[in-house]
Write a structure and sequence with these properties.
About 55% of the residues lie in helices and about 20% in strands. By secondary structure, the chain is α+β, with helices and mostly antiparallel strands. The protein folds into three domains: about 80 residues, no CATH class; about 60 residues, SH3 type barrels, CATH 2.30.30.60; about 100 residues, Alpha-Beta Plaits (2-Layer Sandwich), CATH 3.30.70.100. The longest helix has about 50 residues.
Length: about 325
């Protein structure tokens, strides 16, 4: 009789436990469906009312993060009815989780840093470590860039997506092409022969650079004034300039000018097209290139000079 009573009590306890679990599961499913429906409806409203792709992306990400956090909080309150039990479980597992998931926490910290300090945003062109590209996505554990450079010249896209852990912002050097002002300095070297009329060539290059960069300094000055509130940026000369240098194989003229990062290759092509057209009009301007010269010491050297003098005396 006593054994029967114990069995009945156990069945009753397990039946109550099972019913409580079933109720929690049912509540959890309802919460997941509600938040899933909210996300779907909000995404439709965003796509319907916003035309800017960047704004659509940012709003979708924000709503997704808020939905996920609220959903887990509500489900957690269902399964952990008492605050004390919830805190006890957190305390038991926190030490092990901190060690096992160190990289995860570092990446989450990196995500918070990116959102808070905003060293870059979606659409910015950056270089972090040895990787360069345009930021196309930012997530809690990693961000994604569309790679540029590598085997492709002039910082053009390679077509590859590179997924970088957020924790890299703490350990790698980060360069942003858009902070300060949205232009970078670019240089085009032109090597001429020593016999060329370099003064005329320099005037031609100055005119080509001036025709391109006449309106850029005013844009840059406005951006520098706006960025001066956060960064100490000082540029005295923003106009294009042509530098002169002498190399072992010719006279080097270097055009230095400001250009938008994504326009670098296109602008350089336009520069070279104008340079080739203008130089072709002048016979006294020639490009220098690797050449081979045969030198005879007997004819051109000192011995050759003595020999010629002796022949003249005769």
């Amino acid at each position: 009789m006593h054994d029967l009573f114990n069995k009945n009590e156990l069945v009753k306890i397990f039946s109550q436990l099972d019913s409580a679990i079933y109720i929690n599961i049912f509540k959890s499913i309802i919460i997941i469906l509600v938040f899933w429906s909210i996300k779907k409806v909000s995404n439709r409203l965003i796509h319907r009312n916003l035309k800017d792709a960047k704004m659509v992306y940012q709003w979708n990400k924000t709503i997704s993060y808020i939905n996920t956090i609220l959903m887990f909080l509500l489900i957690g309150r269902i399964w952990f009815a008492g605050t004390g039990s919830f805190l006890t479980i957190i305390g038991l597992f926190s030490a092990g989780i901190a060690i096992a998931l160190k990289d995860v926490f570092v990446n989450l910290a990196g995500f918070i840093f990116i959102i808070w300090r905003q060293p870059f945003e979606v659409g910015h062109r950056i270089q972090i470590g040895e990787s360069s590209g345009d930021v196309v996505d930012i997530r809690p554990f990693q961000f994604t860039i569309l790679e540029i450079g590598n085997w492709v010249d002039a910082d053009q896209s390679t077509g590859r997506m590179i997924h970088i852990p957020n924790g890299k912002v703490f350990t790698e050097h980060l360069a942003n092409y858009h902070f300060g002002f949205e232009f970078i300095w670019h240089e085009i070297p032109i090597l001429l022969t020593f016999e060329s009329n370099w003064q005329k060539a320099r005037k031609i290059l100055n005119q080509i650079a001036f025709d391109y960069g006449e309106k850029i300094p005013s844009k840059v000055e406005k951006q520098i004034k706006a960025s001066a509130k956060k960064y100490l940026i000082i540029y005295k000369n923003l106009t294009p300039i042509v530098y002169l240098d002498v190399k072992d194989c010719g006279i080097l003229l270097t055009i230095r000018f400001l250009v938008e990062p994504r326009q670098r290759r296109l602008i350089e092509e336009k520069f070279w097209e104008k340079i080739l057209i203008e130089f072709a009009k002048n016979d006294d301007i020639d490009f220098a290139y690797p050449t081979t010269r045969i030198y005879s010491n007997y004819i051109e050297g000192k011995r050759g000079t003595i020999h010629n003098n002796l022949n003249n005396d005769k």
